[in-house]
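User: Predict the complex with zinc ion.
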Amino acid sequence: MTEAQLRDDLVRLAKSLFERGFSVGSAGNISVRVADGLLITPTNSCLGFLDADRISKLDRDGRHVAGDPPSKEVFLHRAFYETRPATGAVVHLHSTGATALSCLADVDADDCIPPLTPYVVMRVGTVKLLPYFRPGDASAGDLIRGLNGAHAAVLLANHGPVVAGADLRSTVQAAEELEETAKLLVLLQGQRVRLLSADQVQALRGAFGGPPTP
Ligand SMILES: O=C(CO)COP(=O)(O)O
Ligand SMILES: [Zn+2]
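Assistant: Here is the predicted structure with zinc ion placed in the model:
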């Protein structure tokens, strides 16, 4: 894909997320890898109303070279690109279900989106809960780097999910899948839930094109 096509795709997919309520106000940010660096949504921009020509561009060293000033969460994105070489796109949202789950006191930090349904296993894999940091605090990027590429997605406590994937479309879909499963988990709070068994999870790993490879 050319850079122009990637810019258009980013605008289109961000708008779709916004219109379906996965993002409100100026919450969330999306990046995509290009031949000579990274495109990322500008800071304080609304995902529903991006301008392809004003999307921020960073060079391979993370220097801002074009467009509006980049998202203040750029280090979350760069941490995934650096530790998971197959990463072609990263999506960060404040989507309701995932953010609600990130605020619950007794979530298993090592597996905060347990295998409730097949698609979250196939498209997202095991999600780690990271502690709360002020938005824009680079320490969250250090923690992602510390995972050494073992997870395609993390949940930032009291904040929201960050998902990495091979390309824009599959990463947006994985973020949607994570959100829907988080919503179900919140909906089922306090009820006895039957999770998929270890064998069932194993049979899904690598099935139908997923989960994302590091
Ligand atoms: O989600 C956000 C902060 O966590 C939005 O920040 P930016 O507007 O800087 O991308
Ligand atoms: Zn955020």
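The radius of gyration is 16 Å.
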